[in-house]
Automatic annotation (TrEMBL):
It comes from [Mycobacterium] kokjensenii. Belongs to the enoyl-CoA hydratase/isomerase family. This is Enoyl-CoA hydratase-related protein. The lineage of its organism: Bacteria, Bacillati, Actinomycetota, Actinomycetes, Mycobacteriales. InterPro entries: ClpP/crotonase-like_dom_sf (IPR029045), Enoyl-CoA_hydra/iso (IPR001753), Enoyl-CoA_hydra_C (IPR014748). SUPFAM superfamilies: ClpP/crotonase.
């Protein structure tokens, strides 16, 4: 059994992050979570990037945090370890995926479990194989949910279905996940890579600043009133109207041609 790693591959304006621990269904070690946090933190300030892609090596996306390794050995963590550590690791990872001002796409094969499931739910778009499985097994293991499950699920699928997933531990297949509004798209397993690539290309060709500001406004609106959200929209509009992509969008509209956004 390996500790696993996160492989970062820069492909022009795209950053591909691969969870590379297939012998453990890409369950996340402490080091892998730290590597993801570091990679996303760096991406947030990289002006050359226009989209981020997260995927798993092998047959699965991610089987969650590696609790087996965490709880093995003779020496147990001291009291308060989870409260001190998780806000800077798993919770920081979910926060970054949800709030980074770049579009994030997850492509999911096989299992997306626990933290792995919530990682896919926090992304802007998740494309899954039709036979993929989304599962929140926290209570089946005897502990309560973390990594944003109780915030993400009710907003995506409503309280009734959130209860089914969290309290009853129901597994949701890729096709049902689309019907529920849990993810963006389900495709045949053989078509997953192509579907993710098409979506990433579309996002990378968009007005990156405006996409990031729209993502920020959507997140802000989850806990704001309508007047507060519209005020936030005004500030974002002021910023996006100062970009080169705004000028290009107007020019393309007047010239009746597709825009050629540069992300600036």
């Amino acid at each position: 059994m390996t500790e696993g790693s996160v492989t970062a591959l820069r492909d022009g304006a795209l950053l591909h992050l691969t969870l590379d621990r297939p012998d453990r269904r890409n369950s996340l070690s402490h080091q892998m979570i730290d590597d993801l946090v570091d990679a996303l933190t760096g991406a947030a300030s990289d002006d050359g990037l226009r989209a981020v892609h997260i995927r798993g090596a092998g047959d699965d996306f991610c089987a969650g945090a590696d609790w087996v390794a965490t709880n093995s050995g003779d020496r147990r963590p001291r009291t308060g370890d989870l409260v001190r550590r998780i806000p800077h690791t798993a919770h920081r990872l979910i926060e970054l995926v949800a709030t980074i001002q770049l579009p994030v796409v997850c492509s999911v094969r096989g299992w997306a479990v626990g933290l792995g499931c919530n990682l896919a739910l926090a992304a802007d778009f998740t494309v899954a194989a039709a036979d993929a499985v989304f599962w929140e097994p926290f209570l089946a293991r005897g502990f309560s949910p973390d990594s944003g499950a109780t915030w993400l699920l009710p907003r995506l699928v409503g309280l009734a279905r959130a209860r089914r997933m969290l309290l009853l531990g129901e597994k949701v297949g890729g096709t049902d996940a689309v019907d529920w509004g849990l993810i963006h798209q389900a495709v045949a397993p053989a078509d997953l890579d192509a579907a993710a690539a098409e979506l990433l290309a579309r996002l990378a060709d968009g007005p990156t600043v405006a996409i990031g500001l729209t993502k920020q406004a959507l997140h802000y609106g989850q806990h704001a009133t309508l007047p507060q959200s519209m005020t936030q929209e005004l500030f974002n509009l002021e910023l996006s109207c100062r970009t080169g992509d705004f000028k290009e969008g107007l020019a393309a509209f007047s010239q009746r041609r597709p825009p050629g956004f540069t992300g600036r």
